[in-house]
Amino acid sequence: MRIYELGEETPEVAVVGSIHGDEPCGERAIERLLADEPTVERPVKLIVANEEALDAGVRYLDEDLNRAFPGDPNAETHEGRLAHDLLREVRGTTVLSLHSTQSYAEPFALIDEVDAVSRSVCPHLPIEHLVETGKFSRGRLIEHAHTIEVECGLQWSEEAATNAYWIARAFLAATGVLAAPIEGDAEPPLSLHRRDADEVTVFRLLDQIPKAPAERYEVFVNNFQRVRRGDPVAAADSDTYSADSEFYPVLLSANGYEDVFGYAADRVGTLA
C-alpha cells in the first residue's frame, strides 16, 4: 500500500485507487493528481491500495480485497491483512474509491445506501447513475466507511484512467479539498459532462442474475435500461434467461463475473 498526504493536519478526505490489481485507472489518476502539485484547502490522503496485485497484473493475490473488509491483521491472506490496514488508514475520512469494470463504459457510482455524504457529493460528480448496493455491500469498503465507489469505465482502457482523474478532481472540489481548477489544466472530456447536470438517478440492487457453467455467454439488454417482464436477458450456450419481472440491469456483462451475469435493480429516485 502506497500512501501520500497533502496539506497540514489530519486528513478527513481520502482517494483510494487500485483496490483491484487489474484496475490501474485509480493508480494512474492518483499519480496524475500528484504531478499537478495542487494547492489544497483541506488535507487529503491519496492511497494506491493493492500494489502487489498491480505489479503482478492480476485482480488479487489470494482473495478479492473488495470482499475482504474489515480484514484481520493476522489473516492468512495478503488481502485479508491489507483490508485491515487500509480500513485503518481511511477511518474517519470521506472516501472516493476508484474502480473500473467490464460491463459499462460510462462512469457510475455505488454506495451502501444514500446518506448525507452521498447526497452532498454525488450530484457534483460527472455521473448519471448512483447504485445502492445494500445487502450486497458485505465485505466491500463502502460498507465500513463514508465511501463512494465509482466505476470509471472499462478495465485497462485509457478512457477509464482519464475519467478516474477527473472524477477524483470533482470529488476533491465537492469535499472542499480543491478550491478551483488547477491553473493551465485542460477541461474534462465531453463524455464526462452529464446530459442532465441537475440530477443523478438512483437505483437499488434487488438480486443477482445467476449464470450457469457454459462455454459461451451473451447478454441482450443494456445496463440501466428498463427490462420488461418476459424480455430475453442473457444466454449461457443455448439456454436463454428471460425476465420474471421488470427490472434495471446493473453491472451486467457476459464475462465480468464467474457465477452471475450481474444484478437486477429497481429505480428508486433521483438526487438533485
What can you see in these coordinates?
The chain is 20% helix and 29% strand. It has 272 residues and is of the alpha/beta class. It folds into 2 domains: 2-198, Zn peptidases (Aminopeptidase); 210-262.
> Order of strands side by side in the largest beta sheet?
1-3-2-4-7-5-6-8-13-12
Please mark out the parts with pLDDT under 50 across 5 or more consecutive residues, or reply none: none
N/C terminus separation:
36 Å
- Mean residue pLDDT: 93
Largest sheet: 10 strands, mixed
Based on helices, strands and strand pairing, what is the structural class? alpha/beta
Shape: globular
Number of strands: 13
The CATH H-level superfamily of the largest domain is Zn peptidases
Rounded radius of gyration (Å): 18 Å
Number of helices: 5
Helix content: 10-25%
Total of domains: 2
Instruction: Just name the CATH architecture of the largest domain.
Output: 3-Layer(aba) Sandwich
CATH T-level topology of the largest domain: Aminopeptidase
Q: What amount of the residues lies in strands? A: 25-35%
Q: Element order, helices and strands?
A: EEHEHHEEHEEHEEEEEE
CATH class of the largest domain: Alpha Beta
